[in-house]
Amino acid sequence: MLSSHPFKPTSTCQTTGVQCIEARSALHYHDKEQPTHWDLNVYRGCAHGCTYCFARYSHDYIGGGDFFNHIVAKTNLAPTLDKEFRKSTWLHEPVNLGGVSDSYQPVEATLKLLPPILEVFIKHSNPLLISTKSDLILRDKVLFARLSERTEVRVAASITTANDSLAQLLEPGATAPSHRFTMLRAMKEIGVKTYILLMPILPYLTDEPDQLEQIYQQAARAGVEGIIAWPLNLRGKVKPAFIQFLREKFPALVAPYTGLFHGSSASPSYTSQMLEITAELGQKYGISKIPRFAPETKTAGRQTSLF
Ligand code: SF4
């Protein structure tokens, strides 16, 4: 049921079964400790189905629908964003294209909502960052190349493991990690800055030093500029859902997880150990953490804007 959510329902997209709506606004401000305070979410819900996803509980406000199967698409974001970028109060700050769902999840192949939105970013030379677990983004690489000629563009792949089989269990709807590395190489070749979100690191599943090293090795080969790594957080409803996943697929790990996670986070010593290992790997492969956007990014965007 969509009657109580803050958007205007339009129709069910005929060919996809996805709920189409018109959003009143495109840009969403938040004060979280992230590279930018502005998000633009084209979709609500995400068919990538990651077992550790905590965004899935953001769906409660539109009626508690199943985040992985009840996808909502905002079909009017390109003109809405254009209006918001034209405002004199807009400072051309970087915008995160995503945040609560993956913009290049499978239904985007049919709906093609991203290209006109990227055209708006190009028109206004507005900095952009995006993270995805899909190589569908390569469909739009010409648009990313055009934008990166005008302003800073960052494309990050979220990669938790370099093992395609393990990823199939953990992230059943997403592109295999080997293809995500291919995507990063292709983006790098067209001049886009690329990064990896190595998060979450999953205790006893993806946290062996040689498993983490495989990601750094492949990242170095792909010319990735930065990696940020952080262990699993089992906040709120994620904890019972993830423990249930372990019961079904890795029953021997239920007891170790219960021992490691007294609350939502792993023990501080575990977190320190993971950060130490990834810092050493970063040094070994010459890959730094992901830097903040330069303060001049927004003024550069303003100077080159067409409006
Ligand atoms: S890609 Fe992100 S939003 Fe989508 S299911 Fe996975 S963790 Fe959740």
Instruction: Give the helix level as a range of percent.
Output: 25-40%
CATH topology (level 3) name: TIM Barrel
Our Rg estimate from Cα atoms comes to: 19 Å
Mind telling me the CATH superfamily name? Aldolase class I
Order of helices and strands: EEEEEEHEHHEHEHHEHEHHHH
Features:
307 residues, alpha/beta, TIM Barrel, four-stranded mixed beta sheet, 11 helices, globular, disordered N terminus, disordered C terminus, binds iron/sulfur cluster
Description of the molecule:
Helix content is 37%, strand content 16%. It has 307 residues and is α/β, with parallel strands linked by helices. A hairpin with a 6-residue loop joins strand 1 and strand 2 (19-22). A 7-stranded mixed β-sheet has the order 3-4-7-8-9-10-11. The chain has a 4-stranded mixed β-sheet with strand order 1-2-6-5, with no helix packed on it. The chain has helices at residues 77-86, 108-111, 114-124, 141-150, 164-170, 177-189, 209-221, 238-249, 254-260, 268-285, 296-304; strands spanning 8-12, 19-22, 28-29, 38-40, 43-44, 72-74, 95-97, 128-132, 153-158, 193-201, 226-231. It has a single domain (8-304), classed as TIM Barrel, CATH 3.20.20.70. 40% of the residues are buried. The chain binds iron/sulfur cluster.
Short description:
This protein has 307 residues and is an alpha/beta fold.
Walk me through the topology.
Blueprint: E1 8-12, E2 19-22, E3 28-29, E4 38-40, E5 43-44, E6 72-74, H1 77-86, E7 95-97, H2 108-111, H3 114-124, E8 128-132, H4 141-150, E9 153-158, H5 164-170, H6 177-189, E10 193-201, H7 209-221, E11 226-231, H8 238-249, H9 254-260, H10 268-285, H11 296-304
Parallel strand pairs: 2-6, 4-7, 7-8, 8-9, 9-10, 10-11
Antiparallel strand pairs: 1-2, 3-4, 5-6
